[in-house]
Amino acid sequence: MICAGVDAGSRTAKVVLFDSDSLGVAAAGVVDQGIDQDAVADALFVRLIRENGIDPSQVGPVVGTGYGRKLIRFAQKTITEITCQAAGIRHSVPEARTIIDIGGQDSKYLRLNGNGSVADFAMNDRCAAGTGRFLELLAAQLGVRLDRLGEIAALSRNPAIISSMCAVFAETEIVGLLASGITTADIAAGVLASIATRVAAMSGRNLDGPIVLTGGVALVPGMEAALESILGQPVAVAPRPQITCALGAAILAWKSLNGSPTPTA
Amino acid sequence: MNDRPRKITLDQWDDRHAELRAAGLNEPSYGGPLGRHAAQGDVRLRKLSFDNSPAALRLWNFLLSEEDRLRDCKARGKKLVGAMKDLGTVPVMVYSLPNLAAFYPDGAWWLPCMKENRTDLLKIADSLGIDDSFCPVRAMLGAFVNQKHFPLPGLLTCSVGATCDDFSAIAQRVESLGFPILWWEIPHRRRPDGDEPVVELPGGFTAPETQVAFVRAELERIRRALADYAGEPLTDELLSAGIERANQVRSILGKLRELAYCANPCPMPALEMLIAEMLAIHFCSDHNETVAVLAELRDEVVRRVRAGIGVLADDAVRVFWVNPVADLRVMNLLEDAGGRVCGTEYLFCHALDPIPADLPPMEALARMALADPMVGSPRDRTGRIVADIRRFGAEALVVSRIPGASHCAWEAAAIGEAVRAQLDIPMIDIEVPSLADAMRPTLRTRLEALLETARTRRR
Amino acid sequence: MTAIAYASPFVPVEWIAAHGLRPLWLRPPAAGGGAEFAAARGVCPYAGAVVDAAETGIDASALVLTTICDQMRFASALIESSGRCPVFLLNVPSTWQTGEARSLYLAELCRLGRFFEKHGGKPPNGAELARVMLAYDRARSALLSAQSTLSARQFAETAAKYRGPLETASPPKPDAPPADGIPLAVLGGPLLEADYEFFDVLQRAGGRVVLDATEGGERTMPRGFDPRKIDADPLRALADAYFNAIPDAFRRPNAALYEWLGRELAARHVRGIVFRRYVWCDLWHAELQRLKRWTALPVLDLDAGADDVAAPNRMQGRFEAFLEMLA
Ligand code: SF4
Ligand code: SF4
Fold it and tell me: Domain C3-124 is of which CATH architecture?
């Protein structure tokens, strides 16, 4: 039986098809979000089934998650991204105790119990600082590709201090830093450190290890190093970080089949 | 050796220090080259420029050696009192007792700047839920926890009531971590109602007699606590003598301000004046030395004024500055842009006024505490700012906002409105974070624009 | 009847009513109306909304605010300087342990009484004040005993009505929340009128608020008047019931808030705490991590900004996640 998780995020839609026999991912995909979130997710879902030769009659329950979860009409159930993220990470990194999820528009911190359930969480969905959006804006301003930011930041000897809490003001600061001749490497390192500081403050810095970084920004090389240096603890990047939340949704869909208590919303 | 007044860098100071020593400079025990403080962690000093007088050297060394002095005090058996959110009241009482010394834990405000964030103070504050939506004074919470910056005092006092929410909230967090605090209330100063007996306060404010009596009763509680802690009574005689000594500091500062803010060319840079003014509220843990340090600085200023020499150009634009800057470097920036400070309101201008010496000491202290411009209506503070701008003849106004400080979100507009209505001088408000390097070009542009506007009006 | 608006639970409603005035518990509709405030970083949306409300016009002859935070002190000065509405700023000491602090509060109530007289109030005699106090006391007791039959929103709205004239406050028709909802406490500062929606969202997500400890809720209701004290000196009894007994974040020290909370959480078998605060409200914000360390219960941080009405999904998502966690 294939169970599906659909993560309708603010920037991208992700679908994971989970094979309940092998307890592994049968297929996964990510596409840019569109105006009709249901249609975008549905098209991806259908494409994954087709491309992977899955018999549609084998497809069982679908759980929707993410900001747009209520818009996913083909999902039988919706569960928040907090619970799904925990389930997804539990599957891929069972020993994780803390999850830091930095997405395009928000960032979250989750503390897990020994059994992988959520014990505490906090989220910043109020301002762009501490999110992927902030990173994109500032990388663009530096004229650096996002995937090279970490590599460039690694050359820094003296990371710049970006003190503004607001993405708009941080842009002004970067103009200032560039004008004062600060190197791109130092600014790039400053940008990563600024996001890491923001995320660390949100979590209250009371983090049990192992700490796992997930969400789209986990793909930016150097982010985990910036977090490690701010938190003073090792941070591991989750395998396929963009899809851990959709994977969690698919796993929770499968568990609902088995009668395991799954939260519904 | 070139003794012409000028601003020099830290490296230049170290060279000059060697020359001065060779020429026979006599220094107090805390003297020495300024560079050693940078080597010990106050790295921001490397980016500042300083006045080149031996008096300024002594001032800086005095300020930067406070941690050592506190530890030394403790080692010598002096009892320490941490006077929090206290702008010049409790320290006056503390220094009236010979075996007590007061310090100002709030001074940790500047640590993130001085150490260029290379401390874990803010991390600790974050971990305790005091993030950067609070004023930089949150560094103090970290300092209580890591105990690297001041020894723990045996008695902690904190004024609350009409003080800022940032401090009140942070101090409560300090207490919840197991540092007991003796809270004392400073009520919001209100206008007396028509039929109420009125008391004149230093600085030109008034308050109902009942409020003064209330503050006096609060200070009596502090007096009892200090006496218990010291193991000897804090008599009126001791207090009167303590007030006299505090007034000595205030009087030197009064003279210093008058000269530094009015004489042309400017005889002393803004940064040294900021440090000097701060001594009025906490005495840097040594009252007698404060007097000596300030007297030397005053003498240097007098000498320069008499000689008609100074550190800035004659045509520097005269700027009134409101609120202390979280990044000290910004005071240099104003001067680099062609301005000079002519008058300040660093949130404690009442602590620069003399404490009435003709009143019973507790009454005098209560009146002085209630004269804090921040505890009354913003209109009172604005009124005092306007009066001081006139007094010092400032041509422009800078309101410097402190990131996260709850009062700053409201006050710039109120001050701006009053200044526009009554003075017609240009004004800007800027936000200065603890490390403003990234903001430097923008800040400079804004300051230059302000100064240009003020200059245009001269014509 | 002349109305007096007030925006703090430390202004005793009984004192307004006993002066023959109509108490109006100010609940500004929503934050962020005044663009200037919405834009200004650092302004508490609630304090900003009070200024907006005063600027737009309050249906009252005067407004009473208190000194419990500096944002409110600034708000009060701003309203006063605009001349739109007479303001009385009641001094409520943060410290509460000393006789002087209590006397100051009592003296402030007397001063407030004189202010009421200027606005058409008649000073009450002791018997009249005692009568009004007992009437409000009965109304509040009835509300508290009916709490389990009311939805959280009904409770909050009725509590708000009981901070107005009693004559117009009729008891609500019970509309009990689903019995299987997860028992929750809501702790925090004031709510704007638009924020009451949040109780519905919480209930729809599967929560059942068994303790409303926001500024308008149970936390700030005086705990019954001492009849002996009322007989001896009703105004002092009133002052004591408000000043000595209301636990709040701004008090120094504020241990009483935690003591009260500990008792109430245990008595009601609460399983989770929703911590509702405004961004830039330092006094409540500073308590968040302390609360998290103090309690074994999960705590949901709900930081409310000026733009929250436009973003209900955010609130809903957090509630759902929190309740999934508690399920
Ligand atoms: S700078 Fe302002 S907010 Fe910070 S402690 Fe001082 S008065 Fe309070
Ligand atoms: S919410 Fe906080 S900052 Fe806002 S008015 Fe209330 S106590 Fe003051």
Answer: 3-Layer(aba) Sandwich (3.40)
